[in-house]
Amino acid sequence: MSQPLNEKQVDLLRYLVRQTGPVSSADLDGRIIRALKSRECITEHNGHVTVTDAGRTFLQSAVAPRQRKRRVAAQQTATHARAKAVQRAIQILELALPRDAEVAVGPIFAAADDVVDGFRRYARALEKKKP
User: Fold this and answer.
1) Under DSSP, is residue 129 helix (H, G, I), strand (E, B) or coil?
2) How many angstroms separate the CA atoms of 128 and 123, rounded?
3) Contact at 8 Å (CB) between 42 and 49?
4) pLDDT tens digits, one per residue of 17-41
5) DSSP symbols for 9-24
6) Which ranges in the chain belong to alpha helices (H)?
7) 11-16 long-range contacts, Cβ below 8 Å, gap at least 24?
8) Gap between the Cα atoms of 103 and 116, Å rounded
9) What is the bridge-based pairing of β-strands 102-105 and 23-24?
């Protein structure tokens, strides 16, 4: 792959891989779809998106959701350490949760993918906080 994918592109690609069948492109962000199509990670046919072998290979070869190195700081703040802990937990959750699973969040049940995406957004927000 010539260009690295950004976080949103990796998140969408991961979401598409976890789905059991094609996903309607009407429900997805067109900018991200176009970027993934140009990198040949997905194909679109009759308004539905599927992941290509190249897209699956990319996700399997990526050790972490983000391959680019982030800012290197001399000292890691407690906020960044918390974010890293949340990211490690997310990786474990993704391996443990089956496709189309639901988890209890308080008194309601939510799709496991949505809960994991919420944790991922929370970890990103922690990283962006200034110490």
Assistant:
1) coil
2) 9
3) yes
4) 888 888 888 888 889 999 999 989 9
5) HHHHHHHHHHSSS-EE
6) 7-18, 30-38, 53-61, 78-96, 112-128
7) 11/65, 11/117, 11/120, 12/36, 13/41, 13/42, 13/51, 13/55, 13/58, 13/59, 14/59, 14/65, 14/94, 15/113, 15/117, 16/42, 16/49, 16/50, 16/51, 16/55
8) 10
9) unpaired
Question: For residues 93 and 71, is the Cβ–Cβ distance under 8 A?
Answer: no
Long-range contacts, stretch 97-102, CB < 8 angstroms, 24+ apart = 99/18, 99/19, 99/20, 100/20
Is the pTM higher than 0.85? The answer reads no
Q: Token digits for 14? A: 């991961």
Model confidence at 115, in pLDDT bands (50, 70, 90)? confident
- Nearest alpha carbon to residue 81 among 130, 127, 119, 128: 127
